[in-house]
Predict the 3D structure of the following.
Amino acid sequence: MSLIIRFLKDLKEVSKREKIRREVEKQRKTVNIYNKYATADCYESQKSGKGWQALFSTLASFCNKYEVVLDVGCGPYELMAVKNDVNTVGVDMSDVALKILLNYGFLGHVVQADCRYLPFKSGSFDCLISNQMIEHMSSKQSLECALREMTRFSRNLMIVTPNSVFRRRIHDATHFFFFTVRDLKRLLPSFRIYASHLPPRKILCYYFLYNSPRLRRFPLFGSLIYGVFCRLDSSRFMGWLSRWLWVGSDLVAVKTEEK
């Protein structure tokens, strides 16, 4: 019975996501739907979030050895942490995100553009990075078009996307693609793929509560279970076990070609 209920709920979720996908594709050229996600709150959460900062460090360690860098889908904060430099170019669909980025002191250039049709010449950049962007493509055709476009500008690329093995359900209605290492290898065969290993914290709490928000509807029971999981997560044994079981919250695809 529980399997039937789960199947029906998954079917409802897929239907809801498909409806949003069609709406995104319809409004993409006329209404900037990404503006509602690009806020000052988003800037502050990325600035203070440990997970975000660890991810930005991974991007920075890759692109800081290059001079001219392009960030596709830069958002309102990312380049402040990764490469705040006059030779850096940030591209985003959201004009609000780009204004926030400039207002907080970004030294480089910003361009509002669709990642499928970027206004640059081939080979214009020493390095290209794209973080948490390809999963937002609304169709397979759009995804393939965006990847072809990005690989045209540089020999050195780093593309980051959520790892669906860890994040089985993303609470973001504009995520239309869910990648595992195998999926990404199939999509980017010439890239080296690996999972980023952020410090494992509250693993049990994440898997059993974050992915099951229904549990939070029962305050007393939910708080009790959460308390038990917190104690288990903080134990020395769970810390050791997490390091072995940790699958990585994000997937990193890297390609470098020296001239």
Remarks:
- The CA atoms of residues 216 and 222 lie 5 Å apart.
